[in-house]
Write a structure and sequence with these properties.
Layout lengths: L8 H7 L3 H12 L14 E3 L5 E3 L5 E2 L14 H13 L6 H8 L4 H13 L12 E10 L11 E11 L2 E9 L5 H11 L5 E5 L13 E5 L7 H6 L1 H18 L8 H13 L6 H12 L7 H5 L11
Parallel strand pairs: 4-7, 7-8
Antiparallel strand pairs: 1-2, 2-3, 4-5, 5-6
Length: 313
């Protein structure tokens, strides 16, 4: 399937006015070369009731939304499409309250659930690791409290920022339980391709990065002014500043720690596509990735947060 997507809100409204139109678009996205049975790989199917497809070889019944984040949702597909447009067309993203108001969802919880499902689709399965010269450092987000790497009132985030001349290329970030070598090394291995150059400060837990298959450049900051960190690792500190501003501005900082990972995924998705000239293409990419992500049951979304017991979708 060619990358065909709406360019404007008016085009979105005209092109996806019904669930049938939305479903047809998903069929092309999920099976661009024609239907493929998820059980036996059969290439032909006949339509059945309730939008089901029946494989002509093994008689397995499926739908275009089965096994995706849309599975079992009671929301119309056209509402999902509009939510995705709202999320991708806003430069700084959208809050649950904003989505509820604009799309007329019956409750805040419905908007909250939709956004959390979409955030799980913002990490492309098998995405490429960062390459080249990469700055790595940590920062804290959360409630005010003691500053420094041992703050008990904040959540520790580790960030990798790719150099692109004097600018910033792609980024990766993750929440880690502590700043131990175990967790920092694991993050570097998950985010950065072997053979790349990893630039860190001289904090002891970073020792040993070179033994993992990386060039390790160390800039020692102990005893230097606090501004030295920003000067020596400017990209990663710029990303940290933008992240904190986004969390406070778009979401008012009201994020439970157990859900922070998915907000980091959203920030990364937006940052890495910040130069895209087409909002419609972001809509296309997120919808495409939503078809590759397994269903997220409501109970896994809620976690330990204070959210309603009943699935609003």
């Amino acid at each position: 399937m060619n990358e065909e997507f709406p360019r404007t809100l008016l085009e979105l409204e005209e092109r996806f006015a019904t669930d049938e139109q939305c479903r047809g678009y998903l069929l092309q996205l999920r099976w661009p070369d024609g239907f493929c049975c998820p059980r036996c790989g059969g290439k032909k199917a006949w339509p059945a009731q309730r939008d089901r497809l029946v494989c002509t070889l093994c008689r397995h019944q499926t739908t275009v939304t089965a096994g995706t984040i849309f599975q079992d949702s009671r929301l119309p597909l056209r509402s999902w499409f509009r939510a995705i447009w709202q999320v991708t067309s806003q430069k700084n993203g959208a809050s649950a309250l904003g989505v509820q108001r604009v799309l007329g969802f019956g409750s805040y919880q419905t908007a909250w659930t939709v956004l959390h499902k979409l955030r799980r689709a913002m990490v492309r399965p098998g995405r490429d690791k960062l390459t080249g010269r990469i700055e790595v450092d940590e920062t804290h987000v959360g409630r005010p409290g003691r500053k420094g790497r041992g703050s008990p009132t904040k959540t520790l985030i580790v960030i990798a920022a790719q150099e692109d001349g004097k600018g910033i290329g792609r980024i990766r970030m993750a929440r880690i339980p502590d700043g131990s070598a175990e967790h920092l090394h694991a993050f570097v291995q998950s985010a950065v391709a072997p053979g790349s150059s990893v630039h860190t400060d001289g904090w002891k837990p970073y020792q040993g990065v070179a033994s993992l298959g990386y060039e390790h450049e160390i800039t020692r900051l102990k005893g230097r002014p606090q501004s030295a960190a920003t000067e020596e690792l400017p990209r990663v500190h710029r990303v940290a500043s933008l992240l904190k501003r986004w969390l406070l501005g778009t979401h008012q900082g009201a994020i439970a720690p157990e859900h922070l990972d998915y907000y980091l995924d959203e920030f990364t998705f937006r940052f890495n596509r910040r130069t895209s000239a087409s909002r419609g293409k972001l809509f296309y990419r997120l919808l495409e990735q939503a078809l590759q992500i397994s269903p997220a049951p409501y109970r896994t979304l809620v976690g330990g947060a204070n959210q309603p017991k009943h699935n609003p979708l």
